[in-house]
Here is the input.
Amino acid sequence: MKFVKWLLIVFASLFLLLIAYLTLIFDPNDFKPQIVEAVKKQTGRELVINQDLSWTFFPSIGITLGDITLSNPNGFKHDTMLKVDGIVAEVALLPLLSKEVEIAQLNLDGLTLNFDSYKNGRSSMDGLTSGGEKADKASDESAQGSVQLSSLNIGGIAITNTQVNLYDEATGKTQALALESLTLGEFSLGQFADLGYKFSMTQPEMKLASEGKGQIKVDPSLAKIAIKDFEIENSLEGDTIPNKRMNINLTTQLELDNKAKTMALVLSSLNIEQIKAQGKLSVNYGAKVPDVVASMSFGDIDVTPFMAKEDGAEGEDKAAKGDGAAAAKEPDLTGMKAVNLKLDLDAKSVIADKIKTENWLMKLTLKNGVLNVSELSADLYQGKLLASAQLDGRKPVASYRFNKKISGIKVRPLLTDAAEVDMLAGTTNFEVAGSGFSLIPDNIKRILNAKGQFEVADGALYGVNIPQMLRDAKAKLAGNLNAASSGEKKTDFTSLTGSFTMAKGIVNNPDLNMASPLIRLQGKGNVNLLSEAIDYALKTSVVGSLEGQGGAEKDVLYGVDIPFAIGGSISEPKFSLDTAALFDAKLKKETEKATDELKDKLFKKLGGL
Here is the structure.
């Protein structure tokens, strides 16, 4: 027991002697001028340490300091770029005996970071790697009598309770982020070290929680940073988020060269709920407008869960009332001038509600505020979509133009899936080109000018059986006034063609032609996109027997032009046969026939004179 007692006394004595040595002989404040000068030399910024450095002895030996600030460049919104309430640096004992400081762990608490960016390209990062003024002779002479810092190694860093403020002059807004923790493992320049973080951001309409881990390497020049195998998990919650919750996870590699002003990022994997993708991105931010080149490749994309859903009458009421001011306001596209972009994108398939498409390919460029989609293609409904478009956002009211062509598409499943309209079937070829300005939905309908043509082969009109309507009319001509339609409301045809123009919200089709083995349909009409009203005036003529193929001789209505009208709305078209006009036309035909017969008889009686 006495041995243990004396052993404890010896250790306690050594510890007290060490404390006495550190507090009386080894003053950490001797390092303050060198630390301030080193920061000035490396960054060109002013580092201020208002509190004296002092020793801590529990739970481990360390140096503590606080109330530290690092300035922003002159004229910035925030005077300071960095502010720290307290720092504790745990140090190794043996190097201290050689007057060297080896930091085993660095803890920062109450850190505030202010990153400002301006329209002219200036930011809080300016000059951080350009160095500062060299120490003059006076400073050298004043430092000769102090303790020299021969080496500095950091075993790890832990940052807690951090506030990050991001100010962007272009938008005039400051975003605030709360960083719960940021940890860095054993660190030395030129070597990879473990890096992890966890932060949250709460806004009135959304809450974001994010955490990540990976490895980071900083070049000895401090100009290059590399991050590898960085895994990030994000969770979004809020009423404005689809299904009120969304998970976004990714794994990435990054290389940043602040001297060359370049960044290269590789997305090894990106998961947005069930959507999976990978890609890469490179940025050159040395010029006033950054240049971005990106490519993304997606697998199967089902956007149905992300589409907004409205509940019954409440949704209709919201749609009817809307936000008048917001609905009538042009979208702000000034951000299109802030970056030049080249993007290649492909996707295996895209599903939106009931609409199914495959093999998407898109190539677009954004330069000087003009977005060009040079190629957009996809396979859908056994056919092909090809399109190109341009959006010019350089003026407050944007302008646009487009070309679109679809070929070989089965139109009936497309219409039923896209708009729940069961009106037309067949294999469709369609071309349209248009241009306009203003992106307000109502203005697009009013201002858009377009022209195109269409062709539907081996199809059918649903909702009307024109041959049956003619049979009913034929029966009434024969005296059967109780004739009634029966059978499926469907009119088969071999071809349906026409051209159209669009202006002031009106689609005009001057040359509708439909051909079938029994009838021909010709005419013209309009569709009002604002009211969705249909107004078509057509003429139907019988070219075969209404009894069908192999039927009787020429039909009694053969050669008679029968007025036919299409009205109603796009969602509920109404078809009608002008029976009165049909009687008039038939009567006129019979009269002409009787007149011709009378002429023939008179001609014969007169001896063929």
